[in-house]
């Protein structure tokens, strides 16, 4: 880990503290880019910064938004079948929330809803507005449960630690199945249940190296990719037959 | 050591993949089966999306069949004319199969259909194999060989479009091999299997081809059908993971060589019983997953490849 520069910047920030009155909230990430290489198994990103003393911090991480289909299974002739579906619009493909104290104590429900603090406060709208309220509730809960199981909605917890009264840090984990795209990381400085200051930091998750090239090729030149896959198979098969010919 | 598969979009241990390729390759060398019907469910069990597992397996089977057909070709065991007719049906079948695949995926019922096809086919093949091999095991000594008639006339000999297949010593309607090829093409597209385990019995018992040319000819046909499926899946669904196919293949080629050598030294009946049990085991696991009450009644539709 590149701890040196982080400590250095933390140190500089600590030194700059007395003059930072016009900037009550400063936060940054240890990295602004996550590269999914062939050996990628997930990674940690350190978020750190300073706030005015006696305030709380909430961090909300949201991945690129996509329409997400949730199925409810039902039993037909003894077999579980995808039966009913609800398509939710613009669901964050990745979501995490962290706070320096219990979210309930830090923010009121209105504030949590406005700033999507907590998976249950996410605005999840179905494409088809005619879904009944009871169904919608069940499907929403199902969506969140599934996302948590996939590790794409991170476990919610406090997890932000203070060093002294003003320096804070938290470690954000991105699993190996993290979706690619642009992430918004919002840092909120909370005072008396309200957002006193906010800052947004971008994070880019992208594929890199051979895997990225393969993916790009497969999606943008799919006919060539198909032909190449065929040639590869023929070559590999012929090579195998040649190598083991004597037998 | 983990590797991130670019199309499947998951991180898997390389040695697990090599081991799976080697293990299934070993079995295919030992029993002369393609192995697709074991590999696709295994890939699904380790978390590869069924759509990707099926398309990638088609790619891998193609390579395995190329290496297999060359040996048969050298011995003159390929009936190219029959292969060509089967292929005509196979190409039509795979085009239809990939279309069906895309259609079912749009409906959200693809995984179910793949599982159901597997349960039925593995169940039937496994049971037949189990009965046949355990019978052979117990009555090895007193084999009452009932000789079949050389020529039997069925309804199928009245079908039009008759063709002469010199190598297979047959004069039959082209419609039947086209139909067999078609069915195998559909199975290749939906299940990611070569279809040898359906085609070989069909060629022997339905068409009446001599056993010596059956395997070579079916491999010849499988190459082109899996090639067509690979291309169509790559262009329509972007679900062919060439990296995954290559890793499985590496393990598979080595495993198959070992399997072939071991196979020549062992008596087959006990092993065939084991293979039958393995096939039934995979079938049972798939069936269990279909029938058992899921831990969560809600599920997110697979987004891999579906943009």
UniProtKB/TrEMBL annotation, chain A:
Membrane spanning residue stretches: 223-244
Per the UniProt entry, the signal peptide is 1-21
One Pfam family of this protein, by short name? Alph_Pro_TM
Q: Does the keyword Transmembrane helix apply?
A: yes
Keywords annotated in UniProt? Membrane, Signal, Transmembrane, Transmembrane helix
Would the keyword Membrane be found if you checked this record's keyword annotation?
yes
What is the protein name given in its UniProt record? Transmembrane protein (Alph_Pro_TM)
TrEMBL record, chain B:
Q: What is this protein called?
A: Probable membrane transporter protein
Annotated Gene Ontology cellular components are: plasma membrane
The record's keywords, sorted A to Z, are:
Cell membrane, Membrane, Transmembrane, Transmembrane helix
Tell me where the transmembrane regions lie.
Answer: 12-38, 44-73, 85-106, 112-131, 170-198, 204-232, 271-288
Provide the family line. Answer: Belongs to the 4-toluene sulfonate uptake permease (TSUP) (TC 2.A.102) family.
One Pfam short name: TauE
What taxonomic lineage is listed for the species of origin?
A: Bacteria, Pseudomonadati, Pseudomonadota, Alphaproteobacteria, Rhodospirillales
List localization entries.
Cell membrane; Membrane
Q: Which organism is it from?
A: Pelagibius litoralis
Domain of life assignment? Bacteria
Q: How does it sit in the membrane?
A: Multi-pass membrane protein
